[in-house]
Q: What sequence folds into this?
C-alpha cells in the first residue's frame, strides 16, 4: 500500500471479510477467487457464510455470526452480501447490537468484484473505511 | 390490559395459523416468489413456540424480543429478518412493563412496522407485508377485529398491485394479479391477536 502501512507490524491487524450468499457454493467459491487474486504476502482473513444451515438456498444468521467471529482480528469486519435475505439478515443482526463483532460493517458493493477489491485491499493492510471504499468503487467498473 | 400470557398466546395462535395456511402461503409464493414462504414461516414460528416454552419470558416485551430473535435465526429467507425486526422492535417499544394497555401496544406495533419499512425500504403500495400491516396498525386503536379486517383487506388489495420490492419485483407487470404472500401472512399475524384475546376472555375489543 502506498499509505506507508506495514502489514508485517505485529500491532497491525488485518480487516476481516465475510461473504454472505444464498448459496454455500457461491460464497465459498467467491472467497477462494478473492484470496487467489491477493498475490504474495499476508492474506486477510476471509470466511464464507453461504446458504442455510441444512445446506439449502437462503441465509443463516448463525452462519453469518460465526463467520464474522472467525475473521475478527480487532481491526473490523467488512460483510459483503448478494441480495434479498442476505442483505436483510445482516442488517437485522447489526441492528441487534451484540450479534456481530464490534466494528462490523455491511459494505454496499457488488458481490464478486467487491469481494476481490475488499480482500486485496484488506490483505494490504488497509483499514475498514478503506476496504469499504475499495469494495464500493467496484460498482464503477463498467464492462461495456 | 394485555399481559405476558396474551403475547404468548398471540405467538402460539400465529404459529397455528401459519401451520394451517402453510400450503396456501407457499402456493401464493410460487408464481411470484421462490415457493418457500409457508415452509419458512412454519419453521420460524415452530421455533418461536418452542423457545417461548423453554425460556418462559416474564414480560410482554421479552416475549416479542425473544420471538423476533428466533425468527431472524431460523427462517432462512427475507421474511425472517423482516418479521423478526417487526416483533423485536415492537417488544423493545413495550419496555419492561408486566402489562401493557392496548393503546401502548398499538404505538409499539407502529414502531415495529416503521422498523420493517426502514429495513426493507418498502412503502405502502409496493405489494409487500407493509400493505397489510400499515392499515392494521391504523385500525388497531378501534379493536382487534377492525385491525384483522383491515389487514385482510390490505392483503387482498395487493393482488392488483405491481411488486416493487423483493424477488417479485423482477417480474414487473407480471406480478400483477397475484396476492402477495408476505401481506397474506401478515394478515394471519394480525388475525391471531383476536384469537389471543378471545382465548382469555380478555377484552381487546
A:
Amino acid at each position: 500500500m502506498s499509505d506507508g502501512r506495514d502489514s508485517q507490524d505485529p500491532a497491525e491487524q488485518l480487516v476481516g471479510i465475510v461473504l454472505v450468499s444464498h448459496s454455500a457454493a457461491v460464497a465459498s467459491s467467491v472467497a477462494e477467487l478473492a484470496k487467489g487474486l491477493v498475490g504474495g504476502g499476508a492474506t486477510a482473513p476471509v470466511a464464507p457464510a453461504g446458504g442455510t444451515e441444512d445446506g439449502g438456498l437462503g441465509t443463516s444468521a448463525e452462519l453469518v455470526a460465526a463467520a464474522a467471529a472467525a475473521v475478527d482480528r480487532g481491526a473490523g469486519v467488512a460483510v459483503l452480501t448478494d441480495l434479498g435475505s442476505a442483505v436483510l439478515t445482516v442488517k437485522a443482526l447489526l441492528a441487534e447490537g451484540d450479534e456481530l463483532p464490534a466494528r462490523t460493517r455491511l459494505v454496499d458493493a457488488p458481490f464478486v468484484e467487491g469481494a476481490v477489491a475488499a480482500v486485496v485491499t484488506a490483505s494490504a493492510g488497509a483499514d475498514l473505511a478503506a476496504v469499504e471504499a475499495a469494495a464500493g468503487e467496484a460498482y464503477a467498473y463498467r464492462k461495456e | 390490559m394485555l399481559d405476558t400470557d396474551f403475547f404468548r398466546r398471540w405467538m402460539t395462535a400465529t404459529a397455528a395459523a401459519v401451520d394451517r395456511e402453510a400450503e396456501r402461503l407457499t402456493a401464493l409464493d410460487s408464481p411470484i416468489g421462490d415457493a418457500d414462504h409457508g415452509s419458512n414461516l412454519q419453521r420460524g414460528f415452530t421455533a418461536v413456540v418452542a423457545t417461548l416454552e423453554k425460556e418462559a419470558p416474564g414480560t410482554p416485551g421479552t416475549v416479542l424480543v425473544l420471538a423476533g430473535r428466533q425468527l431472524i435465526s431460523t427462517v432462512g429467507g427475507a421474511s425472517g429478518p423482516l418479521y423478526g425486526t417487526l416483533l423485536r422492535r415492537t417488544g423493545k417499544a413495550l419496555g419492561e412493563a408486566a402489562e401493557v394497555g392496548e393503546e401502548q401496544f398499538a404505538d409499539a406495533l407502529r414502531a415495529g412496522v416503521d422498523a420493517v419499512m426502514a429495513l426493507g425500504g418498502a412503502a405502502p403500495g409496493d405489494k409487500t407485508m407493509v400493505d397489510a400491516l400499515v392499515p392494521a396498525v391504523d385500525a388497531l386503536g378501534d379493536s382487534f377485529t377492525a385491525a384483522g379486517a383491515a389487514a385482510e383487506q390490505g392483503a387482498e388489495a395487493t393482488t392488483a398491485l405491481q411488486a416493487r420490492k423483493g424477488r417479485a419485483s423482477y417480474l414487473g407487470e407480471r406480478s400483477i394479479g397475484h396476492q402477495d404472500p408476505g401481506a397474506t401472512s401478515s394478515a394471519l399475524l394480525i388475525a391471531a391477536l383476536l384469537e389471543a384475546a378471545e382465548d382469555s376472555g380478555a377484552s381487546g375489543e
